[in-house]
Specification:
This protein is α/β, with parallel strands linked by helices and 160 residues long. The protein is 42% helix and 18% strand. The chain is globular, with a radius of gyration of 15 Å.
């Protein structure tokens, strides 16, 4: 099973999660900025899409990639992961950012958690995150358990 991970990251958490998945699945990894060039998706059986969430939005290039390649993606095994601080909002965020057909088709969708990388954040983003969390970053961590669950669910044989 040949796998490609396509991701978008702002401060690096999603890139780190993609690298962890790469090690577990021995897959190819591509930042969506580089995927806009002709990426031959036909040579992959599985496509993993990973993105971070900021103010309820996924990166525009990642959303565009999904829209532009929807016909191909729904012919593949698809996994979607998010890095976000508010996992309870994940379903809404996904439905507001990705095509419904892709979400319905996905084998697994999972939130891995997030990290507050304040040293890399813009002033505006720091102020936003501090306001939302009231300065409590204790819930900001990536769950290795959820990452492992994602891999397990993605690699299970299809039902039927």
């Amino acid at each position: 099973m040949k796998t490609l991970i396509i991701y978008a990251t702002k401060y690096g958490c999603t890139a780190d999660c993609a690298a962890s998945l790469r090690a577990k699945l021995q897959s190819d990894v591509l930042d969506v900025k580089n995927a806009m060039a002709q990426t031959d998706l036909s040579k992959y059986d599985t496509i993993i899409i990973g993105g971070s969430i900021y103010i309820g939005k996924m990166a525009k290039p990642l959303c565009a990639f999904c829209e532009n390649n929807l016909d191909t993606l729904v012919q593949k095994r698809v996994g979607i992961f998010l890095c976000c601080a508010l996992p309870d909002d994940a379903d809404t965020v996904l439905s507001n950012n990705l095509p419904p057909a892709l979400l319905k088709h996905a084998t697994v969708t999972k939130v891995f958690g997030s990290e507050a990388r304040l040293d890399k954040m813009s002033f505006f983003d720091k102020m936003m995150i501090k306001a939302v969390t009231k300065g409590d970053f204790s819930n900001f961590k990536v769950s290795s358990e959820r990452l492992d669950e994602f891999v397990k669910e993605l690699t299970l044989p299809p039902c039927g």
